[in-house]
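ARCHIVE CARD
CATEGORY: sequence design from structure
SOURCE FIELD: tokenized fold
FIELD CONTENT:
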């Protein structure tokens, strides 16, 4: 299945967060049927820009994915389409 990422919106992180690599948060629609919000867009230590699905931290400080894509190839395709859309909007270089 080829993902279809549309209706992409972006909220920029603060200057302090950007210094730590967090560029902001993305919201998008997948296949016109599912709205995903709270995805983080980060610059890695190696300089790559990556998008990660929304996560939450429980009261013990453990991280849990809110949306878990079970197919790694599909997850990479969604990430790629999201980053391409953000670049087309001028949000990312």
């Amino acid at each position: 299945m080829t993902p279809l990422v549309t209706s992409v919106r972006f909220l920029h992180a603060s200057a302090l967060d950007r210094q730590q690599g967090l560029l902001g948060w993305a919201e998008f629609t997948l296949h016109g049927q599912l709205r995903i919000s709270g995805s983080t867009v980060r610059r890695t230590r190696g300089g790559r820009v990556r998008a990660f699905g929304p996560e939450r931290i429980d009261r013990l400080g453990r991280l849990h994915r809110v949306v878990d894509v079970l197919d790694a190839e599909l997850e990479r395709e969604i990430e790629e389409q999201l980053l391409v859309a953000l670049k087309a909007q001028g949000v990312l270089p």
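CARD ANNOTATION: The first helix runs from residue 15 to 19. The radius of gyration is 13 Å.
SHELF: design records, drawer C
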